[in-house]
Design goal:
By secondary structure, this protein is of the alpha/beta class. It contains 25 helices and eight strands. α4 packs across α5, α8 crosses α9 and α12 packs across α15.
Length: about 500
C-alpha cells in the first residue's frame, strides 16, 4: 500500500499543497495519544485475537489517517478490505453471510454508512454479522477499524426512551466499549513533535504558522481554503453549495445527483440574483465549486464513476466533509426553500429513505408547534416517490434547525403569540417533545442550543425556574416560538440562574 492509495482508495483526506519540498503525497505523521491506543488494538489482532475500534471525532481531525498509519503495523498475510459496492451496508452484509476469512482487516470509514438509520435495511444484519464474526474463534483473527462523527455515534449507541421502538439494538451491543475519541486539536506534546518535523515538511510548517487553536489536521485538510471559497462564492455557486448542505443535513447524504442540484438551487437565489445570472450559471457554479482548494477537493466536486460499477442516474457531486459539518451549524436555523423538496421528490426517489425519515420528524414537530395546519400535516409521504410534495413542507422547521423568521407562516406567528404567558410546565413539555421527535439526547440538545446539559435538565423537569433572556432566546429559536414567548427572570434572579448553571457544569 502506497501513500497515493491512502487518498485514492481509502478516503484519507488529501492535504494542502504549499509548493516544492513536500516529502510525499501525505504530510509527515505526528503521533498523538489516541494513536497508541489504535496501535494497541491492531497489535491485539496481529497476535491472534479479533478486535474492533471506532475512532470518533469531528470532521478533519485525523481519524482516517490514524487508522491508515496503524494498519501498517499488521504483519504480512493480512488483507485490507473496504466494502463499498453495490452499496456499503449491503456489500458488508452479503460478505458476512458468505464468510470472511481470518487475517482480514475491515475498513469501515464513516461507520454510519454500514449501520443505523442511514444504512438502510441491511444495517442490523451488518451489526449482528460483525458481532458473530468477532466472537468466532474459527475465523479469528479479524480486525475492524471504523470512524464516525460524534452525532452519528450518539445516534447509534443511545438507548430509546420508554415506549419508543429500539431501531438498532445490534449496533448498540456491537459498539459498546469500542469507542476511541480523537481530539479536535493537538496537545502540547504533539505540538512539540510537530515543531520538530515541520523543518522537514513545508506543509507542517505552514500549519504550525496558520492553524488556529491547535487545529492542525483541519488546516492540512484544506478547511481554511474551503471556507474562503464558500464565503467568497458568487450567488450561483453559493446556491448550489447551500442546496448540497441542506440535502446532506436532511439525510440525503453528502453525494447528490446533478439533476437534484439543478432543480433545488434556483430557490436559493433572490429574484434579482436569478435575473442576473447567465444561462450557463449552473455550469459556471459547478466549475467554481469543483476547483481544488490548496490541493484538496473543492467545496462540491464530481464523483467519477469507476468502470464496472452500477450505472447511476447521471453525474453525482460530493460535498466536502468540512463544509458539510460547517453547514449543519451555520444553517441550523434556516428553513430550506420549496425547490429543495421539489428536487427531492423528482430526483432522490426511494434511494435515500433517510431523507424521508428526517423529514417526518420535522413534519411531526411542525404540527405540534403550530408551524403547519393539520391539513399540512396530512400531506404525508408520497408512496410512489418516497418524498412528500414540496412547498407545503418547506414551511416546516427541519431537524437541527430553527426556522428563519421569514419562513414562519403567519398562522404560526399568531399561534406562538398566545404562548407568551405559558409556564415552565408547557416549556418542559415542548422541549421533551422536541427531543423525542428528533430522537436526540439531552447532550445533543445542549449542543444545538449552545447551552449546558444542566440547563436542559433544569427546564425539562419543569421546576418553575425562570430562564435568563439568553436561555429563553435559545429555546424560542429552537422551538420556532416568537421572541418574547417565554417569560424571563427579572434582573435580580438572573444571577442566581446563571450561578446555578455554572455550579452544575462543574459536577
Amino acid at each position: 500500500m502506497t501513500p497515493q492509495d491512502a487518498t485514492a482508495s481509502w478516503e484519507v483526506h488529501q492535504a494542502i499543497a504549499v509548493g516544492p519540498g513536500e516529502p510525499g503525497p501525505l504530510p509527515m505523521y505526528v503521533r498523538r495519544d489516541h494513536d497508541e491506543n489504535v496501535r494497541a488494538v491492531v497489535a491485539r489482532a496481529a497476535s491472534g485475537t479479533s478486535a474492533m475500534v471506532v475512532l470518533i471525532g469531528e470532521s478533519s481531525t485525523g481519524k482516517t489517517r490514524a487508522c491508515w498509519e496503524a494498519i501498517h503495523e499488521l504483519p504480512a498475510g493480512w488483507r485490507l478490505w473496504h466494502p463499498l459496492d453495490p452499496a456499503p451496508a449491503e456489500a458488508l452484509a452479503v460478505a458476512l453471510e458468505e464468510g470472511i476469512g481470518p487475517r482480514t482487516a475491515i475498513w469501515l470509514n464513516e461507520i454510519q454508512r454500514y449501520m443505523g438509520e442511514r444504512a438502510g435495511d441491511s444495517a442490523e444484519r451488518v451489526a449482528a454479522g460483525l458481532r458473530a464474526l468477532l466472537q468466532d474463534r474459527d475465523r479469528a483473527p479479524v480486525l475492524v477499524l471504523g470512524t464516525t462523527w460524534p452525532e452519528y455515534w450518539a445516534s447509534l449507541t443511545s438507548r430509546p426512551a420508554p415506549g419508543e421502538d429500539d431501531c438498532h439494538p445490534q449496533a448498540r451491543e456491537l459498539l459498546e466499549g469500542k469507542a476511541l475519541y480523537v481530539p479536535a486539536s493537538f496537545g502540547e506534546t504533539a505540538l512539540e513533535d510537530l515543531r520538530t518535523l515541520s523543518g522537514h515538511d513545508p506543509r507542517l510548517s505552514d500549519a504550525m504558522e496558520r492553524a488556529v487553536d491547535g487545529g492542525i489536521t483541519q488546516y492540512l485538510a484544506g478547511a481554511p481554503a474551503l471556507l474562503e471559497r464558500y464565503r467568497a462564492a458568487p450567488p450561483g455557486a453559493l446556491a448550489v453549495i447551500r442546496a448540497a448542505m441542506d440535502a446532506s443535513r436532511l439525510g440525503a447524504g453528502s453525494q447528490v445527483p446533478r439533476a437534484f442540484l439543478e432543480t433545488a438551487s434556483h430557490g436559493y437565489l433572490t429574484d434579482d440574483q436569478y435575473d442576473a445570472v447567465p444561462d450557463t450559471w449552473i455550469v459556471d457554479a459547478l466549475a467554481y465549486t469543483a476547483e481544488p482548494c490548496k490541493g484538496a477537493r473543492g467545496p462540491l466536486s464530481m464523483v467519477r464513476q469507476r468502470p464496472g460499477t452500477p450505472v447511476t442516474d447521471g453525474p453525482r457531486y460530493r460535498l466536502a466533509d468540512y463544509l458539510d459539518q460547517h453547514g449543519r451549524h451555520e444553517r441550523r436555523f434556516t428553513a430550506p426553500p420549496a425547490s429543495l423538496w421539489e428536487a427531492a421528490r423528482d430526483h432522490l426517489r426511494g434511494r435515500y429513505a433517510s431523507f424521508c425519515l428526517v423529514s417526518d420528524s420535522a413534519m411531526a414537530l411542525a404540527c405540534r408547534s403550530g408551524l403547519l395546519t393539520s391539513t399540512g400535516c396530512m400531506a404525508r409521504t408520497n408512496k410512489s416517490t418516497g418524498i412528500r410534495p414540496g412547498g407545503r413542507v418547506a414551511a416546516a422547521r427541519c431537524p437541527g434547525m430553527g426556522p428563519s423568521k421569514r419562513a414562519i407562516p403567519a398562522r404560526a406567528r399568531r399561534h406562538t403569540a398566545v404562548m407568551s404567558g405559558e409556564d415552565s410546565t408547557r416549556l418542559a413539555r415542548a422541549l421533551i417533545e422536541f427531543r423525542e421527535a428528533e430522537g436526540i439526547s439531552e447532550r445533543e440538545l445542549a449542543r444545538r442550543t449552545w447551552l449546558s446539559e444542566a440547563t436542559i435538565r433544569t427546564f425539562e423537569r419543569g421546576r418553575g425556574d425562570l430562564p435568563t433572556p439568553t436561555v429563553a432566546r435559545s429555546f424560542e429559536e429552537l422551538l420556532g416560538w416568537a421572541p418574547g414567548s417565554i417569560k424571563t427572570a427579572p434582573s435580580e434572579a438572573m444571577g442566581r440562574e446563571a450561578s446555578a448553571d455554572s455550579a452544575m457544569d462543574l459536577e
